[in-house]
Design brief:
- This protein is mainly alpha-helical.
- The chain is built from seven helices and three strands; from the N terminus they run ααααααβαββ.
- Helix 1 (2-21) packs antiparallel against helix 5 (85-102), helix 1 runs parallel beside helix 6 and helix 4 crosses helix 5 (85-102).
- Residues 152-166 have low confidence and may be disordered.
Length: 186
């Protein structure tokens, strides 16, 4: 029976690694060096830290997992995750852990395979505006906009600029002291 437990733990460990590697927020943080020169090593450490967190705390609630992941991303990668992916990744990890606790290796393999198939390649590029260039000359803090593009084998996600209801920040909405005016949709 110890062999089956070790196999399930190895599958859980692999599943955690797959879920974190497929997480766009972590991909962007690592690719852009938000964690410093050792971002890749931090991402690998994150997988073992998450696994250990689940092993030591067998009855975690979803919000506890979200808080833990959010805190790690903030502390290690100086990144606040606000794209809505934190609950999704937390749920995947919690589901994998429940399969691990039951010793359901087949479900762990299936879940890891499903996540791998849905994995997207995410890239982020900084956009420079004329206002930002002026602020840099004045020595003021600047806001950096990022354009995120996700691609996978099935489809590419492209931002649509023709939608009149899309929320965009216009230059006149950025006030002199760096605050942004938020306007209601019409």
């Amino acid at each position: 029976m110890a062999g089956a437990g070790e196999d399930a733990r190895a599958l859980f460990q692999a599943g955690v690694r797959v879920a974190l590697e497929a997480w766009p927020a972590l991909q962007i943080a690592v690719e852009n060096g938000f964690g410093g020169v050792h971002s890749q090593e931090k991402a690998e450490w994150l997988g073992s830290a998450v696994e250990e967190y689940f092993i030591r705390n067998a009855d975690l609630e979803l919000d506890e997992v979200e808080d833990f992941l959010g805190e790690l991303m903030t502390n290690e990668f100086d990144t606040v995750v606000e794209d809505g992916s934190l609950p999704q990744v937390s749920q995947q990890l919690q589901t994998m852990f429940h399969h691990f606790q039951r010793g359901d290796g087949a479900a762990l393999k299936e879940m890891a395979s499903h996540i791998t198939q849905r994995k997207c390649k995410v890239t982020a590029t900084a956009l420079k505006t004329a206002r930002e260039t002026d602020e840099e000359e004045d020595g003021a803090d600047s806001v950096e906009e990022m354009e995120v593009t996700a691609t996978n084998d099935v489809a590419a996600v492209q931002p649509e600029t023709s939608d009149p209801n899309s929320q965009t920040i216009k230059e006149e909405d950025i006030v002199e002291d760096g605050w942004t005016i938020v306007r209601r949709k019409k």
